[in-house]
Amino acid sequence: MNKDQAPVLICKDLCISYYTRAGEIPAVVDFSLTVKPGETIGIVGESGCGKSTVAMAIMQYMGANGGIKSGSITFKGRDLTQLSERELRSIRGAEIAMIYQEPFASLNPSLKIKTQLMEVPLAHENISKDEARQRAAQMLSDVNLPDPERMMESYPHQLSGGQQQRVVIAMGLLSNPSLLLLDEPTTALDVTVEAGIVKLVADISKKFGTSQIYISHNLGLILETCDRVFVMYSGEVVEEGTIDSLFTWPKHPYTHGLFACIPLPTADKNAAPLKPIRGQLPLPFERPQGCYYHPRCDHFKPGLCDLERFKMVHVENSAADHRVRCLRYKEIDHHREVPGGEAKEAIELGKRVLKVNGMKKYYEVRDSSLRALFAGKRIRQVKANEELNFTAREGETVAIVGESGCGKSTFAKVLMGLETSTAGEVRHNGKEISEVAVRDRSAKQISSLQMVFQNPFDTLNPSHSIGGQISRVIKKFGVETDKKKIFDRVMSLLDTVKLPRDFYFRKPRQLSGGQKQRIGIARAFAGNPSMVIADEPVSALDVSVAAAVTELLMDIQREHKTTLLFISHDLSVVRYLSDRIVVMYLGHILERGTTEDIFAPPYHPYTEALLSAVPIADPEVTKREIVLEGNLPSAMKPPKGCPFCTRCHRRIGDICDNDLPPEQFVVDRHIIKCHISLEKLCLVLPVITVPDVSERLHVEQRE
Amino acid sequence: MLITTSTTEMPTAGYGAAFLRALKSFALLRESWVGMVGTFLILFWILVAVFAPWLAPFDPNASIQPFAKPGMEAAKISGTFWLGTDHIGRDILSRVIWGSRTVLIYAPLATLCAYTVGILMGLAAGYRGGWVDDVLSRIADIILSFPVLVLYIIIIATIGASGINIIIAITFASSPGIMRIVRGLTLDLRNRDYVAAAQTRGESDWRVMIVEILPNARGPLIVDACLRLGYVIITIGVLGFLGLGLPPPDPDWGGMVNETRQMAMAFPHMTIFPCIAISSLILGFNLLADGLREISLRD
């Protein structure tokens, strides 16, 4: 990194507004940023804080109703706001490139990778087709794609999501831009794939000297990729600084609030629970006077914070470019506060509620190809779940962890009775349910096993009122029959999920994502279930909202002693809230045990990789780096032996390819399915090392 | 999160509120002038149909004075033939006014029937899938592969010309198209989580289809219904023109054109006025559909 060179990009006092039917909406106010050559800047914030708007403004690609009100964007000495459309076109793609969230939407499905890649240098430079082709192939191998020649001839749909994103990154880098904008490039990808992309992004500036602006909602990813970070809240930057200073000594109350919302390895659901930020992000046209954050701030001082807007100030006794937008940052002693929320009592575990014994679910796929006809194999089986064994007890939280396609949703479907199992048994409260479709279950059975769905925008029917949808559940399950009593029960459920009572009359579109998810939880608990399946209930929500919903879910669980089956791909959330973990891969359970068992050696090699892939927003936590090669095999053609053998970094030989590994008992209820002997697995070093509290930097500062 | 401690009252009769909400969403239409023009045209014809007995100057079926030009004074009785009379002396203005009743009764009725059948078929095909979908979709394909006009002629010629039969014919010919739209929408909507939520609480299939899925398909269906009403009006006109419409002597716009088309060169007013009536009403429905689409796309 060369610090003496002129900056690549300078944004000065940028104000961006959108003009809509409701009038002018200020999206970003007073935004200043300087990017030096080779530097990676992170912009972090919750949805609606204006981080994507900044990226669009830098590209000068605001759409019809957006505009820059004041300020300037200077790119290599030229003011982008003054350039003509023609001049901009020669800059976009050539000198500033952008990478979007969804790789499959960024690639044209009907053109070969080759064509799409070669287009970039051909459009911006005067070079021959052969040279463009050569450069494209070279770039593909630079972004660590195996077999670039074959990739060049493929169509986007033939590649996996991770490979597609690598191609998109290659496309962005092809014309050797000075600035690369990455807008949540890994959000749509699985964790182990994400880890690979993050490593690639972190290497780009070293390899190509490209400056980058990395936009993300995930503080952990920012920590792993960036040099400097900007925290945005409601359209303005509230704190900026280098990774070290900001992550170790955050000054703004909002930054603190964000850290208290993410399940860091130090958080514990009983001793140190997450502390959600109260209130909601203000709408752009309803921003309060003075500090935008003051209505949600614990350190708010009337007469000071709510008067007028103020500028960013340099933080005393910190790195040169650590700046904060807070008048009281010096007075606030963040160390006085308890790191998490109030401690809560642990739930006592009761009797066994769920017992899964050798459950299998195969789907039949009809193969109508000629070859299948000749071979006589018209019907092939997709093994979605293979020999699942585990149990769950009353009040326990069992997490099922795995990447997409591992069969966790299929298992949920069998439990809910939307599918029936192929073999084995699932006993819920002693009754066998795996072969009973939901239609044939009694109302009591159905109501005792309910589900919270993943997508908050999909979980409620947009055509019916909130009250109507919850009432229907109560009526259907026969909890209450009298109209008045049903109404009262809906009211008490709304109280339980901490929503105002007049939400009864609202339609789902009037609610925010977090509120919708709360209604989803209220609906699941309407019939007093003994077990609730939560399918990634918070993965689509912002961090502060997710923390509130997670806490709510666990409070209700404590109160009702419900068994929670938590399906997720995010190991940090899982570590925080679950008692037991089941790790799944391609329909098999590779490891299961208590949370402590899973997070300490011996590990299954896959668990090890998963742990390494989780981004942790704490600079003092060290991780061993394990990046998996290759892609998840198709469920139609699983490997013959161990399902994980194609990507395993600890493969020991042919035995892995040919034989299904045995279940090895470590201790009671901790099982690892692997060919490597337990003694050897026990020797593996821990993946995540959390320093002792006394060794921490910010503790020293207190003395 | 704010918690209001005020007790919320139980909802009482919700019809007043629902009516207000309908009015409010209708008020949105004001933002599209195309939609407003359409609405005015339709409202005009609805008012004409409702007040036909008071608006029509003469008995629509009475032969008074043949071959009168527009604006001609009646010879024997007091009154003016504002739009002239036809070849057997019936007042064209009165016939156009009374004819609006025919169209505005049979066209919405026929569309409603077609929609009921189409929606039920589409929901079943889209939601159930499998052989139900195969059978229903193939039936729809077969019906749609016939030229529509030939289909009408065959049906009406077989079962005879009457109001009910027009409705049956239109239902038979247009429900497959509606079914396809509904099926497509259902295929998308049935994968939503709220449908899964309804399934996991053990709701019956029909409840899931009609209560959970159908209301969410209403946007595109309402726009399509407006367009289709236009087509149905054309169809009724065409059937009348082919002599397969309502049996005479009751006024019917298509029939009026048919009866006077041989005199169209000499007495153009006999043909032109019913034609204007038909096209203005169809234009009204098409413009309304455009306006609705414009508004639904905007938000």
Identify the notable features of this structure and list them briefly.
heterodimer, A: 703 residues, alpha/beta, eight-stranded mixed sheet, 24 helices, 26 strands, disordered C terminus, B: 299 residues, mainly alpha, two-stranded antiparallel sheet, 12 helices, elongated
Protein model, in words:
- The complex is a heterodimer of chains A (703) and B (299).
- By secondary structure, chain A is of the alpha/beta class.
- Chain A contains 24 helices and 26 strands.
- In chain A, a hairpin with an 8-residue loop joins β11 and β12 (323-324).
- In chain A, α4 packs across α5 and α17 (513-524) packs parallel to α18.
- The relative contact order of chain A is 0.09.
- Residues 699-703 of chain A have low confidence and may be disordered.
- Chain B has 299 residues and is mostly helical.
- Chain B starts with 14 loop residues before the first helix and ends with a helix.
- The A-B interface holds A 278-280, 416-418, 438-439, 441, 443, 446-447, 450-451, 453-455, 458-464, 467, 473, 476-477, 483-484, 487, 491, 495, 498-502, 504-505, 520, 523, 527, 548 and B 1-4, 6-8, 10-11, 192-194, 196-197, 199-203, 211-212, 215-216, 218.
Could you write a compact summary of the structure shown?
The complex is a heterodimer of chains A (703) and B (299). In chain A, helix 4 packs parallel to helix 7.
Give the distance, in angstroms, between the N- and C-terminal Cα atoms of chain A. Answer: 35 Å
Helix content of chain A: 25-40%
The count of β-strands of chain A is 26
Intertermini distance of chain B? 28 Å
Question: Which helices and strands occur, and which strands form pairs?
Answer:
The complex is a heterodimer of chains A (703) and B (299).
Chain A: E1 9-20, E2 23-35, E3 40-44, H1 51-59, E4 66-75, E5 78-79, H2 85-91, E6 96-99, H3 103-106, H4 113-124, H5 129-142, H6 148-152, H7 161-173, E7 179-183, H8 191-208, E8 211-216, H9 219-225, E9 228-233, E10 236-242, H10 243-248, H11 253-261, E11 313-314, E12 323-324, E13 352-366, H12 370-375, E14 379-393, E15 397-401, H13 408-416, E16 423-428, E17 431-432, H14 443-447, E18 449-452, H15 466-477, H16 483-496, H17 513-524, E19 531-535, H18 543-560, E20 563-568, H19 571-577, E21 580-585, E22 588-594, H20 595-599, H21 605-613, E23 622-623, H22 654-658, E24 663-667, E25 670-673, H23 678-682, E26 688-689, H24 697-702
Parallel strand pairs in A: 3-8, 3-9, 6-7, 7-8, 15-20, 15-21, 18-19, 19-20
Antiparallel strand pairs in A: 1-2, 1-4, 4-5, 9-10, 10-12, 11-12, 13-14, 13-16, 16-17, 21-22, 22-25, 23-26, 24-25
Helix pairs in contact in A: 4-5, 4-7, 5-7, 7-8, 8-21, 15-16, 17-18
Chain B: H1 15-27, H2 33-50, H3 52-55, E1 72-73, E2 80-81, H4 92-128, H5 130-145, H6 148-159, H7 163-189, H8 193-200, H9 205-213, H10 218-241, H11 253-260, H12 269-298
Antiparallel strand pairs in B: 1-2
Helix pairs in contact in B: 2-4, 2-12, 4-5, 4-7, 4-10, 4-12, 5-7, 6-7, 7-10, 8-9, 10-11, 10-12, 11-12
